[in-house]
Design a protein that fits this description.
The chain has a single domain, classed as pyruvate-formate lyase- activating enzyme (Alpha-Beta Horseshoe). The strands form three sheets. An eight-stranded mixed beta sheet has the order 4-5-8-9-10-11-12-15, with helices on one face. A five-stranded mixed beta sheet has the order 2-1-3-7-6, with helices on one face. It starts with 8 loop residues before the first strand and ends with a strand. The chain has eleven helices and 15 strands. It is globular. By secondary structure, the chain is an alpha/beta fold. 35% of the residues lie in helices and 20% in strands. The mean pLDDT is 93. β13 and β14 form a beta hairpin.
């Protein structure tokens, strides 16, 4: 089993100690004997340990930065939500295909924001603007927040904030099974707790440092029994030899281990594998032995956000993926809602 994340190195940005969460985390890390350094800005972090880029990248992935979120204009987060709520950036996982490879660039450390009340106030304003419609907020656009929340309890506080809101709903997704501290949160059914699931081939080859499929399903059962609305994201859907059998086995595992309580309000989201040219370069630099198929000639080119084109599966492959996985969902979870395929 993957152990809960513990950073090797902690940086503190100016202003972080003006907030109770910043003070609490510094005290916690001091008690744990973790080295703590000051930095004028996360952009100024230099001289991470390591003899080469390969080593420094891995140490950066286990470096934690306590920061203050200054930009309180939230990005949109279609199709899963109206807005992304900024709580954490970066991830300790080593998923070869992850889009954070390029968005985090050469600084893949994990940064948690300690000015939670400012962030909550901004979220409340977005809710007021759209009231009486519900506004959905996605908490995992730039991180796997569950992976660090046993240290910060940022997510737990956010779940409880939305539990008290009138027009807000929270969503996030994780590949980690460390959920026990979230089970007693007062969520009031306003948070959809989603797990990323995939065929064993993808998890074993491309998702090192994350919980196994069995551990994720076990955690999902706990979450369902705690009354959370539950969802699964199948992502990235990756075509490999025997992929139909691999995904069938995944659904059989899901159906066999999930309690009946999880099936009443269950959602699925399906996201095919895609990559950009910049992502391909970074992936091959950071994971030179990867088996990930990144051949442009086998894919269809599609315009992406911010004008950066991405490579997706061909139209006929997309039809087959959508039909195959949609049929499996309807077979094993006929009451579930398929939210989208992209």
């Amino acid at each position: 089993m993957v152990k809960p994340f513990i950073p090797q190195l902690v940086y503190v940005e100016p202003g972080a100690l003006e907030y109770p969460l910043g003070q609490e985390l510094v005290h916690k890390f001091e008690q744990m004997g973790i080295e703590i350094r000051q930095t004028t800005s996360h952009n100024q972090i230099r001289n991470l340990p390591g003899d080469n880029d390969f080593q420094r990248y891995r140490i950066a992935k286990s470096t934690f930065v306590l920061g203050v979120r200054k930009t309180l204009k939230f990005d949109t987060s279609k199709p899963s939500a109206e807005y992304a709520i900024p709580l954490v950036t970066g991830c300790m996982g080593h998923c070869h295909y992850c889009y954070l490879q390029t968005t985090m660039g050469s600084k893949p450390y994990i940064r948690t924001y300690v000015n939670l009340e400012d962030i909550f106030d901004a979220a409340d304003k977005y809710m007021q603007e759209r009231a009486p419609e519900f506004t959905r907020f996605e908490a995992s656009c730039t991180s796997d927040i569950v992976g660090v929340d046993h240290l910060t309890h940022t997510l737990k506080k956010t779940i409880e904030h939305f539990g008290k809101s009138e027009f807000g709903k929270l969503r996030f997704v994780t590949k980690f099974a460390h959920v026990d501290h979230l089970l007693d949160a007062n969520h009031q059914g306003r948070t959809r707790f989603r797990f990323s699931v995939n065929a064993d081939f993808i998890i074993k080859n491309f998702e090192p440092g994350t919980s196994s499929l069995g551990e994720r399903i076990e955690a999902a059962a706990k979450v369902a029994n705690a009354g959370y609305p539950l969802g699964f994201i199948i992502a990235p859907i990756y075509l490999h030899e025997g992929w139909q059998e691999g995904y069938t086995e995944m659904f059989q595992n899901l159906a066999g281990l999930l309690p009946d309580s999880a099936r009443k309000d269950l959602t699925f989201e399906m996201i095919q594998h895609r990559f950009t040219k910049p992502a391909k370069r970074v992936i091959q630099q950071n994971y030179p032995m990867t088996k990930l198929e990144l051949e442009e000639s086998k894919r269809k080119w599609k315009w992406g956000r911010y004008g950066i084109g991405k490579y997706v599966y061909t139209d006929s492959e997309q039809v087959e993926i959508n039909h195959t996985l949609g049929s499996l969902i309807n077979t094993y979870f006929p009451e579930a809602t398929i939210e989208y395929f992209t």
